[in-house]
Amino acid sequence: MPGFDLAEMLAWRKAHVSNFEEHGQLADGKLTVFWERVPLAAAEECKDWLQANRQNPTDVAADFKTYDGTWSFTKSFHGRGKGGVVDLFAEFDRTNASTGAVDTALWANARVVAGADQTPGDTHLRVRFTDVDKASLYTLMAAVRGQSYTNPSINGDTYTGTYRAISSQPSLNEDTGKGDLLVILWNKSFTLSSFRNYGLPSQEDVVYIWNVAKDEAQTIINGYMSDGYTVTVGHQVESDVPGTVDLVVSVPSDVSMVPIDYIVGTNCDISTVTQTRLGLTKEELQAFIATFTAQTPGVTKQLSISFNENTGKYNATATTATRDTTGVALDLTIGADEDTVLALTYRYNLTKGSVETYAAGFAAQEQGKQKSLSVSRRADCTYDVVAQVRTTQPIGEALTTIVGRSKDTLETTVYEWGIDKAAVEVFVAGYAAQEQLVNKSVSVSRRADYYFDVVGRTLVKTESQIPISFTIGATEQSVQNSDYIWNMTASALQVELDNRSTKEGGKQKSARISRNRTSSGEEDGTYDAVFNEIVTDNTTVTAAYGTGAESEENVYSFSCTSAEKDAIIAALTDTDLEGNLSVSVGRNQDDTYNISTRRTQQKPSHTSFAWSLGNEQYQIDFWFGQLRATAFAEIEALPQGPEYSISLRRNGDGTYDLTIRRSESAGDQAFFTISNDGTLTEYQHYFGITLAEVTTAIEALSQGGISDRAYSLSSRGDGKYNLRIIESTTKEVDYDAITGIGESVSQRTYWEVGKTIAQIPVIAQETGVAKSLRVDRDSRGQVSLQRQETTIIPWTSSTFIIESQKERTVQGTIYAGHTTIPTITTTYGSVSSQFDAGTATYSGIIREVIFTAESGDEDHWDNFTSSAWIVTTQRFYGHLAGKKYFIDAPIWYKVKQTRSRSSAENFINYGPGGTITLPKHPATQPGAGSDVKIIGGNKYRATYIHGLYDGHTSLEKAMVAGAAWIFDTWTQVG
After folding, report:
1. Cα(57)–Cα(72) distance, integer angstroms
2. pLDDT tens figures, 302-314
């Protein structure tokens, strides 16, 4: 890279002034200079050199003019160039106020944007300082905050009164390093008093204090709080007085306490005193509560308290219920049973000490007496007592019973009641000795009165071994011999068992032994036994019978020897196919066998059923137990024609079951027609017809006209057919609709259904009208037509201002739908046009330049407002269903040029007035995006925007929510 002399290349004498602005505010100047034909290769190096060497130049001289003051370098950039050279620009700001002090000159440059100059009686001012450099901005904010100013003169206007700065709000532009400061000046507020619940005990005085500075509000609140008053605070919104709050003070009236007392006799034992106190202070309430803290037996106290938020006082109700504790008595004596007397004693409402004294009288234990005491405590600390004393007189008499329980058993029972412990010991000792064939038992129960009841039992058994023997015919072929022997000793039982232990063929022996017990369940050492012996003889039984549709033969052989068993089985054959044979063999405990043979066979039978249903004839035949030749012959003999269903099953005995189902129908027909809004459909149904009838029905269909036919043919099992024919014809329908799809565009759509190809119209060209035709042909040869005619209505807007400068004004007019391109009528101007091939029309903008006299310069900047709306466009992009779209949305606005910033801001805040008719579109709020710019000196240009589209609404919502033309205006990219 060649070396460059940057200091020489960027000397002030070579600089040219691109822009110079002077301001009457704190930052009072902006200077933009540039150096021509700077090599592009050195551009970035030059920008770095300016950043390092031109930070704070003084008295800058450029273009043969000196610009006084100290300038601050802000940024550098280069413009477009050709041939490898560019123009290099540098921007500087001049700031005279850097200390941030608030002096007379500073107030003279400030602006009151809202306050006493708008509404008489306002107590605050909004003062704005503009274009303050960053260092001075925060210094100024700190110097102003909390200061008081008497009769301040702001921008030439004096505001009477003492104002204090209660809020300062900076706004900094990081790009320029400058900002604005909004200061709120506050004058003392006023108050308003009202009354709540006037004349009532809950009366309150309500005081409203508005626009209290936040740092003073707490002191006022603390003063009211110490007096016991209620204060609520409300924050101001930005549109009122920032930095202040509203206070509402509630001062309750002094209501004297109201006492209410009364006494009520609740029941025979209780009297109730009720005390009500209304309008108590907190201290009075605490004193009233203290009188009810003590606990007293027989006294129940309740206290309810409520707080009156309106008065800040309390209401209290106390209830004291006093019970009579003299101790009401009730005594009862009853005969509980034959030998018992029951004494009942009731005592009510006793104190704790009275209960303890009374209970002490029941503490001693006494034989023959059973005592109990129940005590229940009430909520008022008194007690109810119930005492029971059962006194028993012992009988002391014995009862002896002797019973012969069975032929060989005698039982003696002795009962004694109400005897003492010593008598029990003597009684039990009489049953201690053990005796052969004698069972003894004693039961003793202790009563609640400390006496005893005893029962003694003695069971004496006579030894007997006399047997009982008998013989019975157990079954047809067997005899059973039984021996019963009772009360055997163990040795006698063993002898009997040994005599019956030998095994013998053909005999089945068994023994059942039980050990005897007394009535109380104890074993007495004797046994009962039963001995059985069954002897069986061989026999054979044959039974043959028929069970319904089957024949059956059973042969039973009982108690066969092993050789007889084998001979019977060997004689059986399994080669017979006609019959089902089964054999069952069982072994008996006496080494003999039982054999059962069973042979079953189906009986041949035939049953037939026939019925009809509509045109259908049905028949079903059932063949059971047929031989093979017979069953097959029936199948082979079936005739041709009808529909048959055959089911054949072979049985286990070699026979066959056969089922033959037959169905046959006569031909049947059904016709019906259904008419809908757009179609006419005819249905033809044929059931059970021959092939020739199928051909005739299809060939008979009409060949003319346009229709949609469908055939459905199915073959049946009986050799006939079912046929369905559906023929559908579309009705001719014509209708149309007109829609407005834009401000100057209308569209008419024609729909024609059920036409022939010959009826398709010829579309003629027409200037200003875009036409389209869509034809759909269906399978029947019919066509559906959709014709659209989009008509462009020639439209020309009113004249609006496109550009406004001090020496000229550029006016514009929008046109659309014109068949020719308009021409301008003034000397200077231009016309832009765009041709729409679909409608053969032109649209665009006509621009005309109108020059103004140089002498009208000051008049031009004195409250000039454009009379017509200015229109331009802005392109926005959106995405829908994975595709990208764009729209050139129009932006409508008016401009105002003035030497008063407040006038320019009022133009933005309140709008230019008048009405504007805009197409339907998802719009921003009027005024969104509007701003005020400083043109030079104290000249301002305000732009009020009435936007149509903000670029943020989703494309999908825009298409759904807006008019139809929105969808057409969005253009797909790519």
Report:
1. 7
2. 899 998 776 677 8
